[in-house]
Design brief:
The protein is mainly alpha-helical. It has a single domain, classed as Fumarate Reductase Cytochrome B subunit. Strands 1-2 form a two-stranded antiparallel sheet. Helix 4 runs antiparallel to helix 6. The chain is elongated, with a radius of gyration of 34 Å.
């Protein structure tokens, strides 16, 4: 089972995440959204959302850089394994606490507000709970790491992650003897990758980062020189029938034709 969870399961989770995300975007593009509940209840949303998203983004990029950067790069920069582990513990701890507080706020409003609860699916609530479990496991691994600050445990995790990404055989053997909290943290993280295409997490890929470098202008359409808007149909001038017109009579100014009454129309 160790070889399955840490040697085969990572490729299953990553493959499903990529293929199913592409399939969903092509087949059901209108379901590709964050499905925000801010319109249903704004209270607590801003604080919880900011704390959660900032914390998760710091953790994600911290894992991405810390695990996938070749060890030779840290050695060339003079960053020791112990210093790298202390930095990861400090930054990850602060970001993890922020994300847990924000996630708890979001989960509380989702479970206790009747309007949000009715408009939530099982996937919406379930993925948020799973993210909270993952965050708590990550914070728990910091406590374990404090027992050995030599960085050897983190070095094993780096060898495993790079072995998976770079398609190296026997990657699971690198973490045979690591603490079970690290293993649980990895399995839950891979499960989140597996469920990614079927939840609202897909909005991460479509984050509107282009607004950061969008030109700062606003399109304004001026009414200067525009034609006046029409107010309706102009009345048609009344023309007297030719057979009742006197040859020497000068026609009167045009009068608007009024609709005939019921008696007159009957005549």
């Amino acid at each position: 089972m160790h070889n399955f969870f840490f040697g085969i399961y990572p490729y299953i989770a990553l493959t499903v995440m990529v293929v199913a995300s592409i399939a969903r975007y092509e087949r059901d593009p209108f379901t590709w959204k964050s499905k925000s509940s801010q319109l249903l209840r704004k209270k607590q949303f801003v604080l919880g959302s900011v704390l959660f998203h900032v914390g998760v983004l710091v953790i994600f990029f911290g894992h991405l850089i810390g695990l996938l950067t070749p060890i030779q790069v840290f050695d060339a920069l003079g960053v020791g394994h112990s210093a790298k582990q202390v930095l990861a513990m400090a930054a990850g701890g602060v970001a993890g606490i922020m994300a847990v507080i924000g996630g708890a706020i979001l989960l509380h409003r989702r479970l206790n507000d009747p309007r949000i609860r009715v408009n939530s699916t099982v996937a919406d609530t379930g993925i948020l709970i799973l993210l909270m479990v993952q965050l708590l496991l990550g914070l728990a691994t910091i406590v374990v790491s404090m027992g050995h600050l030599d960085g050897e445990e983190m070095l094993k995790l780096m060898h495993w992650a790079q072995g998976i990404i770079y398609l190296q055989g026997g990657a699971a053997a690198h973490i045979v003897d690591v603490h079970w909290l690290f293993k649980a943290h990895i399995v839950v993280g891979l499960t989140i990758f597996l469920l990614f295409p079927f939840t609202r997490l897909v909005h991460i890929i479509s984050a509107p980062v282009r607004y950061l470098w969008r030109p700062g202008f606003q399109i304004v359409r001026s009414r200067r020189g525009a034609k006046p808007a029409p107010t309706g149909l102009s009345p048609r001038p009344y023309a007297e029938p030719a057979q009742h017109r006197d040859p020497g009579h000068v026609p009167a100014p045009a009068r608007m034709a009024l609709p005939a009454s019921g008696a007159e129309s009957a005549k």
